Amino acid sequence: MISQFFVLSQRGDNIVFRDYRGEVQKGSAEIFFRKVKFWKEDGEGDAPPVFNVDGVNYFHVKVAGLLFAATTRANVSPSFVLELLQRIARVIKDYLGVLNEDSLRKNFVLVYELLDEVIDFGYVQTTSTEVLKSYVFNEPLVVDASRMPPLGPAAIFRQGTKRMPGTAITKSVVANEPGGRKREEIFVDVIEKISVTFSSSGYILTSEIDGTIQMKSYLTGNPEIRVALNEDLSIGQGGRSIHDYSSSFGAGTVTLDDCNFHESVRLDSFDIDRTLTMIPPDGEFSVMNYRITQEFKPPFRINTLVEEAGLLKAEVIIKVRAEFPSSVSANTILVQMPLPAYTIRASFELEPGTVGNTTDFKEANKRLEWGLKKIIGGSEHTLRAKLTFSQESHGNILKEAGPVSMTFTISMYNASKLQVKYLQIVKKTKTDNPYRWVRYITQANSYVARL
Q: What is the model's pTM?
């Protein structure tokens, strides 16, 4: 049960506000934003997703650069409210197509209509896009996404000023194409977030993949969909399926530790040919979530060398090598390394001919940052940083610096080798052959190399 719901821009502008119970003061949005903006904990750090101010509990998540927040004085489960905020953001994105400040302002009537159906007097009624279509009648004003800055995983499909056709994030589930005709297409995204920890000598200490198969359908008539995965897929420890399928024994090339499926998925033939059958609901949903802790080839290798270069000076050399094929490229790469607290200056040196790289020394929190716009598979990139320390320096730099962490996004690549072999649509009527889009995205969850 929540008292208020509101959406704020990055500047703190109140875009959407709904007070359901009148239990919390009207200025709560301003109190919340000031607390988030000026949050200090040990001199740094972002505000936690849940905090309390003067007896009011504040919950928030950041989606597409917007702050989705809720308040209550009641003792409510934090995970419940945070999940609710995520689902509200997803429903709004399903209806508007593009989720950003401009689309919310242009469609505020539709957004308020959605909120009135999702929440009644602070209690959740439904967050199903499919169910809401029976109660929500306003048509969205579709925003031209090509004029907006790219947000979220789908932004990696932008090629310069062009966008790959049919990007699902820019389409509404209820709006038609110009001329009133609905474009028949379906999107399947295999999204994997990988966590890897390297030792100082380069060995892999821990590795894990959290994956999900996302689907968004724009097909009329609710046809049946069949998604075929790797035939040699095995599930559970030792290759044994958690569903106790007899065909899952043995070592397959793709081994999942565990997985779960959306309620619409039927597993009748999954044990025979690894095919998932479903009638997809409206909006975006997770067909399957899975986890892998088996050893896999990491997409990047990070090597770091730290050497003292005289009194009060040191040099850091960071090398990043892409271990994936040259036909694939990574985007929005950021390498970070905490430096000793007594570091006062850092100068950087990149390889000759380097284009699109950024380097920075964040003096406030003593952190080195190296941004790379693009890395092609098989290439290697090097950064040299010369550090200067204050007179108060003490101790061993290796003990006080690091570890090196890395964030990145790689399109059309997945570390687990889980594949969608085919996507079959069982049509009820004779219509044009629908468009099918199957894409792969790999992102860093926690990618760390110790010194």
A: 0.73
